Amino acid sequence: MEDKWLNSLITKDAQDGYELAIKLSRMAIKFTQPSEEIRNKIRPEYASNAQNLIASSQVVATNFNTVALANNFWKD
Amino acid sequence: MEDKWLNSLITKDAQDGYELAIKLSRMAIKFTQPSEEIRNKIRPEYASNAQNLIASSQVVATNFNTVALANNFWKD
Amino acid sequence: MEDKWLNSLITKDAQDGYELAIKLSRMAIKFTQPSEEIRNKIRPEYASNAQNLIASSQVVATNFNTVALANNFWKD
Amino acid sequence: MEDKWLNSLITKDAQDGYELAIKLSRMAIKFTQPSEEIRNKIRPEYASNAQNLIASSQVVATNFNTVALANNFWKD
Amino acid sequence: MEDKWLNSLITKDAQDGYELAIKLSRMAIKFTQPSEEIRNKIRPEYASNAQNLIASSQVVATNFNTVALANNFWKD
Amino acid sequence: MEDKWLNSLITKDAQDGYELAIKLSRMAIKFTQPSEEIRNKIRPEYASNAQNLIASSQVVATNFNTVALANNFWKD
User: How many domains does chain A have?
Assistant: First the structure.
């Protein structure tokens, strides 16, 4: 796995926080399936399937909740 | 992806917060499947399928939890 | 979509809060599938299928968590 | 639906709270499928299917989180 | 159902808390399917199926969140 | 099961916390399916299937929420 890919949960604003949530969601897939070749092969499958896209959005929502809490919802 | 699509999690009232939750849910799908053509092709599939509609509602519920917390449930 | 359907997350008691959670769960489905005709056609499908009923209950549970937090669990 | 089925989220102890979580999980199914006849017909289906049993346990876990928070984890 | 199976959410340490989360996850299945015979028959099915194992791990994660909160993450 | 596999939820930084979330996600699978032989047999199945990979990422997201909360988001 990459050496250092997550330095902090703190982001500049909400949109950056959302992009971090997407990154967190993808990293778990990398950890479970380290082979880039296999990931590339199955990527079209999940990116063109309604059920998988919705499930991906659920993972992002869960991670975004964590990131938003960490940043006190960017209210400070 | 769009330049700036998320400025803040703070909304005027609960209903606007719910609509932001829907927007957050859809953005993750855009990030995973950037092709508008493919998204339009699969949209009828997930909007006419009970299982996918319920799963979509689950994503909105998770994002709404985040937005509602950010706004202190619009109690202030 | 309806003009004003969500005024507040605050409810009189826990049971009213639960009913609001059900309403929130259904609204996401309306947003994703605005056609009442299609929704009516698929309704029997998800209301008579164990997996869909359980998934619906999961959405309600998530929304109820939000509503219960908003109301400080009706302890005040 | 029943007149009054939920008076409070406060319970005597953790086990009672868990049983309330189960009740909350079942009520959503009653709201979605009000016909007792249909519910009885599909009950064996979901109670004998591993995937549905696990999904049911997920709903209970989410509701139990809400009930446990409401009771300050029965630490008072 | 068993007379008294849950005395407290407080555990000695994080690992005990994790084991309590597993117990909570299993109890919901017992409540939904009280017949030990049927549970034993479907157990191999869900313990040898990738999708069911991951779903089980999701339930444990949700219950562990509750138990960890109850114990203030074992930081006291 | 292993004697002592979880000492604390506190980690040095966010990335270590994420790795702990992955460990927590895997342990539930070990508890449900203690046979290493069977786990090894089904591993390729879930690591090469889009739906299972996304579901795994969901479990990690839930556990990461718990670990991040335990560490006050590594802000101290």
Answer: 1
> Is D33 within a domain?
yes
| Any domain includes D4 | no
- Residue D42 touches partner C, C-beta closer than 8 Å: yes
Backbone angles phi, psi at A48, to 5 degrees: -120, 15
D19-38: b (≥16 Cβ within 10 Å) or e? bbbbebbbbbbbbbbeeeee
User: What number is the ipTM of this complex?
Assistant: 0.96
Average pLDDT of chain A, as a whole number: 94
**What percentage of chain F reaches a pLDDT higher than 90?**
87
Q: What is the pLDDT of residue A14?
A: 98
Chains that touch E (3 or more CB pairs under 8 A): D, F
pLDDT of B23 strictly over 80: yes
In order of A15, B26, D11, D50, F2, the CA distances from B9 in angstroms are: 10, 15, 34, 39, 44
Q: What is the mean pLDDT of chain E?
A: 94
| Residues D33, D31: Cα–Cα separation, whole Å | 6
The pair of structure tokens assigned to D62 is: 């989410």
Chains that touch D (3 or more CB pairs under 8 A): C, E
d(CA E47, CA F31): 10
pLDDT per position as a tens digit, D45-69: 888 899 999 999 999 999 999 999 9
In a domain, B2, yes or no: no
Q: Which amino acid type is present at position A57?
A: S
pLDDT digits (tens, 9 = 90+) for A50-64: 999 999 999 999 999
Distance of CA B54 to the CA centre of its chain: 14
The answer to whether residue E51 sits within a structural domain is yes
Tokens 């909360």 -> residue: F69
What is residue D44's predicted lDDT score, i.e. its pLDDT? 86
B8 chain-A contacts, CB cut-off 8 A: 14, 74
Cross-chain residue pair D24–C15, CB shorter than 8 Å:
no
Q: Which of E2, E8, E9, E65 to mutate to test the interface with D (most CBs of D within 10 A)?
A: E9
pLDDT at D68: 98
d(CA D38, CA D16): 29
Higher pLDDT, A61 or B47: A61
- What Rg do the C-alpha atoms of chain A give, in angstroms? 14
Q: Does D68 touch chain C (CB under 8 A)?
A: no
* Domain residue limits at F68: 14-73
